[in-house]
C-alpha cells in the first residue's frame, strides 16, 4: 500500500570530515531535492537534525552519526503522529554497484547500522526506502574505510547522474506512489 511521504530522510554522517563520502549518499540526494525545491537546510538542535521544508514534506538530515540516526527520526515520527510508511529513507547500499538504485516498501537492516538504528527507534521495518549503490571495496579492503572514503575521480560523473536519478525517483514516488516509481527507477544489478 503506497503512502505519500511526509518526511524524507537522507542518511549520512555530519561534519566536513564526512562530506562527499560514500556513506553520505543519502545526504547528497537530500541536498539535490532541497536545491530542486529551492529550500535551505537549517539546524534543529532539539530534533538532532538539519531540516528543510519542501512542498508538503520535510527533508531531514540527522546530525547524529549514522549508527544513531533513529534518535532523530523515531521521536520526530511520533511527534508528528506519522505512519512509519510515510517516512521515506534514502541510504547507501554496498551490495549494489554505483549506478544501481532500488526502491523498497520495507525490509531488514541488512547490516546497515543507520537502518538498524531507525528500526530500533521507529519500532518497525515497514518504512519505504531508496537504496543507493556505492559498491563493495576493491579487493579485501576494510568496509569501514570504504564507506567512509570518498568516491574516486573516475566515479564522479556517474555519481552525479545517480544522485539526480535518485532525486527524480523520490519526486516520482511522491506523485505516483512507490510501486509505479519502482517499476520505472529500479535498475537491474549486473551479475
Automatic annotation (TrEMBL):
- List the InterPro entries: Pept_tRNA_hydro (IPR001328), Pept_tRNA_hydro_CS (IPR018171), Pept_tRNA_hydro_sf (IPR036416)
Q: Which CDD domains match?
A: PTH
The entry's active site is: 23
Checking Gene3D superfamilies in the record gives: Peptidyl-tRNA hydrolase
Q: Annotated Gene Ontology MF terms? A: hydrolase activity
Family matches, as SUPFAM superfamilies = Peptidyl-tRNA hydrolase-like (SSF53178)
Cellular compartment(s): Cytoplasm
Record-listed tRNA binding positions: 18, 65, 67, 113
Site annotated as Stabilizes the basic form of H active site to accept a proton: where?
92
Keywords on this record?
Cytoplasm, Hydrolase, RNA-binding, tRNA-binding
Where does the record place the site Discriminates between blocked and unblocked aminoacyl-tRNA? 13
What does the record give as EC number?
Answer: 3.1.1.29
Catalysed reaction equations from the record: an N-acyl-L-alpha-aminoacyl-tRNA + H2O = an N-acyl-L-amino acid + a tRNA + H(+)
Keyword Hydrolase carried by entry: yes
The family annotation for this protein states: Belongs to the PTH family.
Functionally, this protein is described as follows: Catalyzes the release of premature peptidyl moieties from peptidyl-tRNA molecules trapped in stalled 50S ribosomal subunits, and thus maintains levels of free tRNAs and 50S ribosomes.
Subunit architecture: Monomer.
Return the protein name.
Peptidyl-tRNA hydrolase
Question: Which species does this protein come from?
Answer: Akkermansia biwaensis
Lineage, broadest ranks? Bacteria, Pseudomonadati, Verrucomicrobiota, Verrucomicrobiia, Verrucomicrobiales
Amino acid at each position: 500500500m503506497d503512502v505519500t511521504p511526509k518526511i524524507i530522510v537522507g542518511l549520512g554522517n555530519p561534519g566536513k570530515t564526512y562530506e562527499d563520502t560514500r556513506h553520505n549518499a543519502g545526504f547528497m540526494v537530500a541536498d539535490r531535492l532541497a536545491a530542486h525545491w529551492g529550500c535551505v537546510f537549517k539546524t534543529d538542535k532539539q530534533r538532532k537534525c538539519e531540516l528543510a521544508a519542501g512542498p508538503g514534506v520535510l527533508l531531514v538530515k540527522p546530525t547524529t552519526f549514522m549508527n544513531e540516526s533513529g534518535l532523530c527520526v523515531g521521536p520526530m515520527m511520533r511527534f508528528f503522529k506519522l505512519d512509519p510508511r510515510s517516512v521515506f529513507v534514502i541510504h547507501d547500499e554496498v551490495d549494489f554497484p554505483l549506478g544501481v538504485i532500488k526502491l523498497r516498501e520495507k525490509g531488514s537492516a541488512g547490516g546497515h547500522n543507520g537502518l538498524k538504528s531507525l528500526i530500533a527507534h521507529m519500532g518497525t521495518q515497514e518504512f519505504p526506502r531508496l537504496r543507493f549503490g556505492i559498491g563493495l571495496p576493491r579487493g579485501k579492503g576494510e568496509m569501514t574505510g570504504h564507506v567512509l572514503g570518498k568516491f574516486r575521480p573516475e566515479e564522479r560523473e556517474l555519481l552525479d547522474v545517480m544522485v539526480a536519478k535518485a532525486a527524480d525517483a523520490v519526486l516520482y514516488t511522491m506523485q505516483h506512489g512507490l510501486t509505479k516509481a519502482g517499476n520505472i527507477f529500479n535498475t537491474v544489478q549486473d551479475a
